[in-house]
Prior knowledge:
It is a single chain. This protein is mostly beta strands. It is built from no helices and 11 strands. Strands 2, 4, 5, 6, 9, 10 and 11 form a 7-stranded mixed beta sheet that branches.
Amino acid sequence: QVQLVESGGGLVQAGGSLRLSCAASGRTTSTLAMGWFRQAPGKEREFVAAISWNGGRIYYADSVKGRFTIFRDNAKNTVYLQMNSLKPEDAAIYYCAARSYFASMTEHDYNAWGQGTQVTVSS
């Protein structure tokens, strides 16, 4: 019983910033590891970032290191993806995913998924 709702997507110019949010609800929200994935038209869904249940372990895709930051506020049952220096190739639908405790870069490890939020980057 984990439900995820993404928000914060929109249109931004190249070089700009967006912050995505993923609000989790359910009885196990305090011990959830969270991940962000994205899918562009015609491409496979790819890993972006992940964070363990307590924030102790964080993973990033090489393509976003130094530009994106994942963090969480467990009091609000929310994980965030701060995206800076956005590039046109970052445009995609961004999905939030959840699993128990341990962060993973592997899509099939996650049990719950949100509906996605669209990020569009113009130049």
